[in-house]
Design goal:
By secondary structure, this protein is of the alpha+beta class. It has helices spanning 2-26, 34-76, 89-92, 205-208; strands spanning 78-80, 86-88, 122-127, 139-142, 145-153, 162-165, 173-176, 183-191, 194-199, 211-216. It has four helices and ten strands; from the N terminus they run ααββαβββββββαβ.
Length: 217
């Protein structure tokens, strides 16, 4: 309601200013005369009214903003931030605050980075066929830890070697070598015990046969 009245008073104030200006420019006796005095009083009243409703409207907007912020904090949780005060938890990290764990029944807190796999790891060697879309093996095995695959591509066609989690091609690449032809390269990834897929990521090559199983145990 205050916002509507503010716009009404503001519109009337503009109109009154325009009328007084137009009359004043045409009248040699401006601002004398009873009608002009009344007009000026009305103009002053409109100025005061517009100012009052502007203040009320600003207070209402501030109250609405506080209510929305409180509702958001209630829904998402609030976190103290450096310098004092609280903000909705999803915004806390942007202001330098540590995001706390979610309360029971709430959304799960972000998982910390996974620890590197412990173990001796291993170094494996693999090569591409010089004339076909194929590796020279379909199976590799290693101990857990840092696993390095040395890749030799004698063919003029570019290939690479990548490692994915699981037995099938998922697109979730854990590590990938450079794309090379008639050259050698390597890729290293920290791997926990499990089953992985090694493959060439050039479109169509893995589907044509350039893939195999990497077992880590």
């Amino acid at each position: 309601m205050d916002q509507t009245l503010f716009y009404v008073f503001a519109s009337m104030l503009v109109a009154a200013a325009a009328v007084i200006t137009a009359v004043g420019l045409r009248s040699k006796q401006f601002p004398s005369g009873p009608l002009m005095t009344i007009a000026l009083l009305i103009f002053v009243g409109l100025v005061i009214g517009t100012g009052i409703f502007a203040v009320l409207n600003a207070k209402n907007e501030q109250t609405d903003r506080r209510e929305k912020l409180a509702a958001e904090e209630k829904k998402l949780g609030a976190t103290p931030v450096p310098g004092g005060g609280e903000v909705p938890t999803p915004d806390a990290a942007d202001l330098g605050a540590a995001t706390p764990a979610a309360p029971p029944g709430g959304a799960a807190a972000p998982s910390p980075p996974a620890a590197q796999a412990k173990g001796p790891g291993g170094t494996l060697n693999i090569a591409a066929s010089a004339s076909q879309l194929a590796f020279n093996t379909k199976a590799l095995s290693s101990k857990p830890g840092k696993v390095t695959i040395n890749f030799n591509n004698p063919a003029p066609i570019q290939h690479d070697v990548a490692i994915e989690k699981g037995k099938t091609i998922t697109g979730a690449i854990l590590g990938k070598s450079d794309l090379i032809s008639q050259s050698k390269t390597s890729v290293s990834v920290d791997l926990a015990p499990g089953t992985y897929t090694f493959l060439c990521t050039v479109p169509g090559h893995a589907q044509a046969g350039m893939q195999g199983t990497l077992t880590v145990k």
